[in-house]
Specification:
Layout: E1 2-6, H1 10-22, E2 26-30, H2 41-44, E3 54-57, E4 69-72, H3 74-85, H4 95-125, H5 132-152, H6 165-175, H7 188-198, H8 201-208
Parallel strand pairs: 1-2
Antiparallel strand pairs: 1-3, 3-4
Helix pairs in contact: 1-3, 1-6, 1-8, 4-5, 4-6, 6-7
């Protein structure tokens, strides 16, 4: 059994997609981010960055030793699950493709994901009188990353030779292009790749998980100081019940 600590966001979808694709028995634990569940001491012990997703593997491989294994950060989670199950990653002997996989995992967590997250912030949650510069800045960066992805997919169906954790990690932030104010019209290869992944039953199940609990702009900078304007004080141990 694996506990998934989750919210229905692009980053949360990454881990849910992998769990569904692998057919692993897991228990989703919905975190109410707008209420501060992410700052609870029990969750901080699993995810010290107070972010979702995170997992707790209660049945790790023997080489991990006794006790459950916590994993935080979406890229680390997908890599851990791929190595645990032997699914959706290149063979260990294929060093060049393994190298490609690591490059695209790092590209996602260092480029596409952060740019998409900032674009989402200014598109959906920033005060109306302060959003224009940030929105235009990050829309440009988001489109630049779509261009990188378009080039990669020019002569291939998947990021690597086959469908892999690289596709699962990159897909969610491309999936929500339209709600972010972006368009895939100039990126037909990305649009086709997005459609192929979206059609997978495991992906559909993951996206539908707790769908009714999506924020959808209800909690904004000007009405929720739990989600926004966080400081280091948020991560300090608290008396009583705390959260992410």
């Amino acid at each position: 059994m694996i506990d998934l600590y989750y919210a229905p966001t692009p980053n949360g979808w990454k881990a849910a997609i992998m769990l569904e694709e692998c057919g692993i028995d897991y228990r989703p634990n919905l975190l109410r981010l707008s209420e501060g569940d992410q700052f609870a001491p029990d969750f901080l012990a699993i995810s010290p960055n107070a972010k979702i997703p995170a997992i707790l593997d209660h049945e790790p491989a023997p080489e991990w030793g006794a006790g459950p294994v916590p994993v935080f950060e979406s890229g680390a989670i997908l890599l851990y699950l791929a190595e645990k199950t032997g699914q959706f990653l290149p063979d260990a002997s294929n060093l060049r493709t393994r190298k490609d996989m690591m490059e695209w995992l790092f590209w996602q967590v260092g480029n596409q994901g952060p740019m998409g997250g900032q674009l989402s912030h200014f598109c959906n949650y920033a005060p109306d009188d302060q959003k224009d510069y940030g929105f235009n800045r990050y829309l440009g960066e988001y489109d630049r990353n779509l261009g990188v992805l378009e080039n990669r997919l020019t002569d291939r169906d998947w990021i690597l030779d086959d469908y892999s954790i690289a596709d699962m990690l990159i897909f969610p932030w491309a999936f929500i292009a339209k709600p972010l104010g972006a368009s895939l019209e100039s990126f037909p290869k990305v649009a086709d790749w997005r459609a192929r992944i979206k059609s997978r039953p495991a992906v559909q199940r993951a996206i539908d998980l707790n769908k009714s609990d999506q924020n959808r702009g209800r909690h904004r900078v000007d009405n929720n100081n739990v989600l926004f304007n966080q400081s280091a004080a948020s991560l300090r141990p608290q008396s009583g019940d705390g959260d992410e």
